[in-house]
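Dock zinc ion; give full complex structure.
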Amino acid sequence: MTEPRSTFPHGTILGYPRIGRRRELKRAVEAYWAGATDAPTLEQTAAGLRRATRERLAALGLGRDDSSIPESFSFYDQVHDAAVTVGALPERFAALRDADGAIGIDAYFTAARGAGDDAPLEMTKWFDTNYHFLVPEIGPETVFSLSSDRFARQVAEAKADGFTVRPVVVGPVTLLALAKAAVPTPTPRAAGASRGASGRVGPAAPQGFDPLSRLDDLLPVYAELLSALRAAGAEWVQLDEPALVSESLPADAAVLADAAARAYAALGVRGDRPAILVAAGYAQLSPQAWTALAAAPIEAIAIDLTRGAVPDAVPGLDRKTLVGGVVDGRNVWRGDLDAAWERLQALSAVGASEISAGTSTSLQHVPHDVADESALDPRLASWLAFADQKVAQVVTLATGLVEGREAIAEPLAEASAALADRRSAPGVRDGAVRERAAVLDAGDFERGDYDARVAAQDAELALPVLPTTTIGSFPQTGDIRRARARHGRGELGADEYQRFLRDEIARVVTLQEDIGLDVLVHGEAERNDMVQYFAENLDGFAVTENGWVQSYGSRATRPSILWGDVSRPTAITVAWSTFAQSLTDKPMKGMLTGPVTILAWSFVRDDQPLGETANQVALALRDEIADLEGAGIRVIQVDEPALRELLPLKAADQPAYLEWSVGSFRLATAGAAPATQVHTHLCYSEFDVVIDAIAALDADVTSIEAARSRGEVIGDIRASGFAAGIGPGVYDIHSPRVPSVDEITDLLDRTVGELSLRRVWVNPDCGLKTRGYDETVASLRNLVEATGLVRERVGVSL
Ligand code: GLN
Ligand code: ZN
């Protein structure tokens, strides 16, 4: 099968949401996990979703038989799909392989979710997005072999329906660059995810082992996969290589580009393969990778022109199609289609044999369809493009490439009109908000001398040494969720719901007093989500009904849309916090979500710098803090768990990011009186990267996740000279395991051995909302008891 390659279509998308328009895949997968359905039923539902996607994409204008429709379905995660296909299943799950060595659906899910003592694969964020992938574990002994025919079956399934699809597979360089060497520690997972107990993770790889060193062993299996895809009827395959844009991976750009050169030289020379499109979105390809791919014997390269410039002409392009990612795969804006067209024109000057229009990334990061949002203001809706609208934009641009600009003059004009309407619409620019932001000066970002603050807070709060507290949320029980849902449906009146929440708060306060914690929280029962709650209570945001976006596995979130200037019509949290404070003499923490996290977990406007938007959110929070103080709240926590995740992939962009992100936090908090204790919370352990930024937040107390890599975290804190209050989490809240008194005592002993006793706080790793009450109460009692023991021991040396 070495007939000439088919030409690449003039327009394509790099991937499509797979969770289903109404989260059908989530429900099907979870029903299967719960044992409510069997594997054939699950496969049938999945096949139905794939079929619906193909038909939908064809109806939107992508071709049925020209490989413009990607096959990007996944039951859980695309990185896991690739890892499983090449046989990279951790040893601890080896027994789950079929008799012939194949990795079936149960082994696939078990590796993703863990089983008993066998820890699941670690999860981490996919580049600078909110999507979490499963980190492959690859060691020196990993035996690569084609272990799943799922990709080929999906191609054949489409063929049977009359479609020639383009399978999308994470490429070999990215697969290895994102992998980790197996290490014998309990497995971490990402923030917000709930995970099973820590457990066995398999044999340790030798120190310094780099999964990328296995590239040559891996390539034959990719070659075999490509040949299987070709045999199944694929004319093109898309190999995703976003590692080639990142400067945030262990391997540097030169090493990654060299790996790409070797990989595609080896795969490209094979005759029995589909034509190869290498796709590298999320930022600009490194110059080295661009040169390597242009020279490689592949047929097409897709690049991100929304977060990268038109690259230089380099040798080899004359034999390639360039897919210009001019439609943003990550935001929800209809955007400037004319500018997208112009970028494609600029791309045609670099000397490729063909130009195609594309999305910058897979559309997995955006919801399905604006048309599913009947409750959105129609004017706002007219400015938006979710996945289906973006497909239509690509189709328009593709038509223009074939027929010339006149052929698409009308849709371009419509898009420009929508953009003009958006620019001038009320609320997009709010005079009062802008005036306030315009007169900010350096003093608005300064809280004043730290030592003076400590003295004022000591006098105000009179806390014991090693103060104990929690991160904010208490378990979100079925009762709470049901009451919220009934309230949403109008079945539970406002007064009743209010009473329910007050009872819940009272219960949580009494419980904390009984346990003996020092700084209490109200438990956040009134919040559905720490960002959406604020979005719903601030002007400038809209919320969607069906705007689900996969977060990881079967989990999806519904990010709010930050479309206009942000302001706070009225106090948001004050009534809850003051009610909670009225029930106790202990300090009650006011709980807010910080500006960076609010931006990171929303769809943010694209018409002004993020820093400007962040400052607007910060000013709204600043007012909320003033109101909390005015109402007698003396400790206020402003959570910034997303500070690390928004960090740009390119080193050159990082200082500017840190400047505005840290600045917005300071703007939010700098109005607090010296005697008001400002806390912040961040939840990740590899925080050495941003430790200077954390210090620059200038919070009085910072709580962080540390239970899973405590040694490292304490070392990092110590090395950085971080001098303010610090609460390295003493137990992992992502597991139902109750930490023993001994264990916590040990951790605290080590901590106070390394850090100044006067600065250390005692708290769990993160909020407790995903936990049950039994383990929560048991864990917190142990935490308090351990703290007591350590206090007694160190008391004399104070
Ligand atoms: N205050 C939030 C909570 O306790 C913080 C959550 C987070 O860090 N993701 O749930
Ligand atoms: Zn957290």
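Observed: Residues 465 and 675 are 18 Å apart (CA to CA).
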